[in-house]
Design brief:
The protein has about 210 residues and is mainly β. Helices cover about 0% and strands about 55% of the residues. The chain is built from one helix and 14 strands. Strands 1, 2, 3, 4, 5, 6, 7, 8, 9, 10, 11, 12, 13 and 14 form a 14-stranded antiparallel sheet that branches.
Length: about 210
């Protein structure tokens, strides 16, 4: 990523509408931030755009706080990622974080609605992607998570990912698959067709 010069920024005269101009930058006046991001617009390849705001201290106890808004255009991502052959829609991240060196405190969401991607090796695009990933304290919770592959519906709503410090400590994501039909197009022998419903859980427990 790089910081776009002022002549290339979109709306560089005003901060994005999600930014509260009255919100103090950094942590607190008493924290004497060792660094402070001035809400720059960062522009990356493939239509990735980021707005940042935050600050922190490098002295003990170390503290970091900030917020980010990111936008990813899936169609442009597909133009430079070989394994993605098609993209439609966008992903939007709005989040804030405070970290005292031991446990993160997260808030915000990552959302996609009515998105679609084509993946190399799959004859049919994954469509109707609807994701609402909520960041809550030290957990990421899938409030909504579903997509279609042909006639199949895949749902992972209710999944949780728990962080301990900067590490993933626990994963518990139920996955429900309905009406999945596999044919020779997906690599099965000619004349063979398999229908599949499944309920499974992607899990990782502390210490694993």
């Amino acid at each position: 990523f790089w910081v776009a010069p002022p002549t290339e920024r979109e709306g560089c005269g005003e901060p994005p509408s999600w930014v509260d101009p009255s919100r103090p930058r950094g942590l607190t006046a008493a924290s004497a931030p060792a660094f402070d991001l001035e809400r720059p617009l960062l522009v990356g390849p493939g239509g990735v755009r980021l707005w940042l705001q935050g600050g922190g201290t490098l002295d003990e106890p170390m503290q970091v706080a900030g917020s980010v808004r990111g936008e990813v255009d899936l169609a442009r991502v597909a133009s430079f990622v070989p394994s993605i052959t098609y993209g439609r829609g966008s992903a939007v991240l709005e989040a804030s974080m405070a970290w005292d060196g031991e446990r993160p405190n997260l808030a915000g969401a990552l959302q996609m609605s009515d998105a679609a991607v084509g993946l190399a090796g799959l004859p049919t695009p994954v469509s109707d992607i609807d994701v609402d990933l909520r960041l809550q304290g030290s957990e990421a919770v899938l409030a909504r998570a579903q997509a279609r592959y042909g006639a199949a519906l895949v749902n992972a709503a209710g999944g949780r990912i728990h962080l301990e410090g900067s590490n993933v400590d626990r994963i518990d994501v139920p996955v429900h698959v309905r009406n999945l039909v596999l044919t020779p197009r997906e690599g099965l022998p000619e004349g063979l067709e398999v229908g599949w419903d499944a309920d499974m859980t992607i899990a990782r427990n502390p210490g694993e």
